[in-house]
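Entry 14: structure prediction run for SusC/RagA family TonB-linked outer membrane protein. Input pasted below.
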Amino acid sequence: MKRNRNIILLLLLACAQMIMAQHVLTGTVMDKVFNEPLVGANVYVANASNRSLGGSIADVNGNYRLSIPDQKDLSIVFSFIGYKTQTIKYTGQKVINVTLDEEGMALETVEVTAKKIERNSMGQSAREMISATQKLTLGSLETAPVTSVTEALQGAMANVDILTGADPGSGSSIRIRGTASLNASNEPLFVVDGVPLPVDISDDFSFASANSDDYGSLLNISPADIESIEVLKDAAATAVWGSKGANGVLIIKTKRGSKGRLQFNFNTKYEFSKERSGIPMLNANQYISMIQDAVYNTVSDLGSSAAKSQEYLKLLYNTKEIGFDPDWQYFDEYNQNTNWLDEITQTGFISDNSFSVSGGGDKANYRLSLGYLNQEGTTIGTGYERFNASFNTDYRFSDKLDIALQYSFTRGVTDANYVDDTDELKKASIRGHALTKMPNMSPYVIGANGQRTGEYFTPYESFGMTFSNDKVYNPVAMANEAQNRTIATNSRMTFVLHAKPFKSLDYFGTVGFNGQFTKINRFLPQSVTGVAYEHESSALNYDIGKDLLYLTTENRLVYNQSINDNHKLLLSGIFQTSDKTTSTYSSRSANTASSGITSPIAGSTTAKGGSGKTINRDMGLTLNGQYIFKEKYMFNAGYRWEASSAMDASGRWGGFPTFGVAWHLGDEEFIQRLGFISLIKLRYSWGQSGNAPTGTSPYIGKFSTVTPGYGDMSAVKPESPDLTHLKYETITSNNIGVDVGLFSDRITFAVELYTKVTDDMLQKKIKVPSSTGLSTVAWYNSGKMENRGWEFNIDVAAVRTKDWGFNLGFNISQNKNKVLELPENQSDETYTFGNKKYAYRVLMGDPLGSFYGYRYKGVYQNVEETYAVDKTGQQIMDINGAPVVVKNGDQKVYPGDAKYEDVNGDGVIDENDIVYLGNSNPTLTGGLNFTLRYKNLSLVAALHGRAGQKVINESRINMENMYGKNNQSVAVLRRWRSEGDNTDIPRALYDKGYNYLGSDRFVEDASFLRLKTITLKYQFPENWMKPLGINKLEIYATGYDLFVWTKYTGQDPEINLKNPDGSAAQVAIDSNNTPKAMRFAFGLNLRF
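Run finished. Output tokens:
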């Protein structure tokens, strides 16, 4: 016993000696240029052999605390990604304050990092956060050839799937961890400087043809004004934003002034863009031959004596547009070889300029910025112009009170090609018209000298109509003369009051106002259509106006208390309100006096008009608490109550709990002894969030009038009942994550595993008994859907010396979607048998985004192959013992027709043979970026890609069907003509047959890897610039979308999701949208 007591005494003395031998070093780590704290900077003590003997990380204020062992020849090493490492010899100092220099150009690259982050709304620093978040610092936006934020984010973050349109001012589709709702919004919430932005997205919103008011939340923010974007992915992170953040949150922080002398920044860049070669189409002779072939095949099937055959032959022989009659007055106009797509494309151009001034002192700081962008698209008649101005200031009255004020103004003008939804012809895109327009027709009237005049050739009736039994529009005239202009003005103000009555208590009061004022004018001049003046489509005007006023308030209390060195408590309470008022109007008229008068009030014929006003209100209260033990073990719990005017009193309030734990395993002694590990953080979070129905008060029953009613009176009938059963659909998420840093964070990576289950899904088109007087109910809660997946991202600072630097970033992710439950009385499918049609279904067990159709088996080569067989392979005979010929629908097939798999073996291809063909969810998404620097010269590149997405190539359907009078692609030159032709393209068949049913023939894998940007930059040496009063001058050249590696046969593999035929299927369909062009930019950045 005495011996044991002596041993214990010796151990205690040794420990005391070790403790007494430890010294404590404190200080700060700051950015040298901006004098800002470098949050998360690594500080460690190294011995003579440069082995780490212990380390620390700078906190939110840049402060660090480091224990120094009692040894000789020690050094203190300070490092941070993108900055030069600094080593200071330790000689017993108690305080060492350092400022780190940016490492040449490396800091300007896009980096994904979760370290350089301020405290969030609940008072948590990056070290204290438990949920799944990811942050992007956007210094490179000043030098990247992007016109919107989403262009820069694409491929930069794991499981943040972004698809952007190619037309100027076009919209973007963003999905964070998949699609969580069938009918509510799936777009994330955008928060700018603490204030949510309103985004109105209709159920049938098409991002490829969006208007400025629909995507204005991102286009109205200049990339040059943005400092960082943080993405919140799981429910524990998004809880504070309630149902609006159920699909993820993008928190945008804009640049602000800082203490120091007056600083000016000027950025300018010029860009040129050129489309790649389009889909090769038939020339004039090939087109006429194809039309003749199609008519002859149809006549052969019907028999030459049939009435239809006589009609078709008469059409063929008497149509001068495809005949050769030099005496006809329009012979020259129909004796051309026109590439219509070339006629409507041009070289695109962008001029982008921004200027800012900033500064500050002990009490206040400020920043003023101005920007102007002018863009011309690669399609004639498309363009985007944006003017933006912003001002922000911060003023500190005392250590206990400060305020922040921000104002921004943006005016954007988008010119798009004319689109009108009134009939099928006008709804089609100009590119769709151009690709299928008859190639022997001229865009212009041909003069006596055989040359084009400046007058558009616009025959009102013609054989070469784009759609059967409709009128002809000249795509070139449409692109140049028709108007589709959107003017979007945005005014945003934010006021923040910060009070600190006690050391551990902070109060933040925020008021935000956002006004979005949008006007859309569409005008179709008579000169474009060629119709008579009195025609209903002559000088057609259409005006749409939309004013949106959005007022938000937030009152936030944050209590942050440390209890000795072992315990810390974070408590927060947040109360938020929002009030959105939307006013709309529309008017439509025709027959103005001239093509120069585009106002609807000038039309002599008024078609229709209307106006409306809606109000939506929300409020929410969030309570959150976090306990931290020894800065290593963290426990978090919260609850949010929320109310929405979208539901009636019985379902208006929803409650959503969250919970999370985290362990800084890297701070354990047995890990620190390894030396090379700077961070290991294990995280788990669970939480719920809600999604509310879209629209204004959809729970209120509606009535509509019926005309005529009884006699001359109209009647009123119920359109939808009161929906007292509506409530939030609930999204429950689980997230497991690990963050790792190695070699003083020279290598950092994160891994996430998650599930996201949506219960009580908001459904539409639910069947109800006919006794109710209705067929379906608009909204109903029922069903369950799951998203599950994983994410991986890594950043490596591989080389970091004075002259050389090499940084690499990579991310890859997977999301799998599955519909788990559906109501039995769901009515979502709208399929009817016919060419081009697919079945868009939402079925249990299949992913959302699935589509269904027929299996294409090639072409019937001879008569024997047309005989039907049953499931066993036995030939089917009729009652007379003769072989039965397969029918596609109600029509017998002939050699050369399309062959589809007869799944049920009955000899008829119909709805019973429809099978699952695939879904539009990518298997993998990811991105890669790197920076290679040599002294002041750097090369920066970014790639992004998707794998496994199935796309319906509707463009091919339209250009390979040979069914009507449209021009077709050169692929149809391989069409079947006679027995022995080894081909997968059926024969030409005019107005007959089912040779292009919706099948896997037109389903393609749209996997791709795109070189998004590659930039070569040079920063002039500092010692050259300082005598001129210049802090920084750099020039650069950038190539954008130079290479795309893909097997997809369409013009661009990046295809947006659609809800075809009014379904909720969300399928990727290629409808000839403008493809991304190759772009070349040259720019200059100046700071003085």
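Notes: The mean pLDDT is 83. Will compare against the previous run tomorrow.
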